[in-house]
Amino acid sequence: MRGALLAALSIALGGCAGVGSLRDGLQPFVGQDIHAAVDVLGYPDGKREMLGDTIYYWSTSHSAPLLMPTTSTTTATAGTTTVIASTHSTQPVTGLYHCTIQMAVDTDNRIKSYQVSGNNGGCASYSRTVSRATGR
User: pTM of the entire structure?
Assistant: First the structure.
């Protein structure tokens, strides 16, 4: 039951646009000035220095209610006959949508590399934004 719930939750948090398409869509930014990414993604949520590079990051996180299908099975005996009945319903659960994009730039503000983490539901809005801007 728990495995089915986790599988259904991952499907519900998924979507056509997500982590994979965002990773692909960000590839054209490598080698460009960080302002090219800012023009598409907006101002970053923050930056930090690490190993001589500046790392800019964009991050989002929110929760949303989801209705997950559940099945309960009941077995009873009526005389010599065993009766099995299933009840189908939905159970509310809370899904967490999150996404973080990190871009490392060199001393000339050129994007050296990037990293995306999160789930499809969290990264979908970034993915759509990048797709519209880059055609990817």
Answer: 0.71
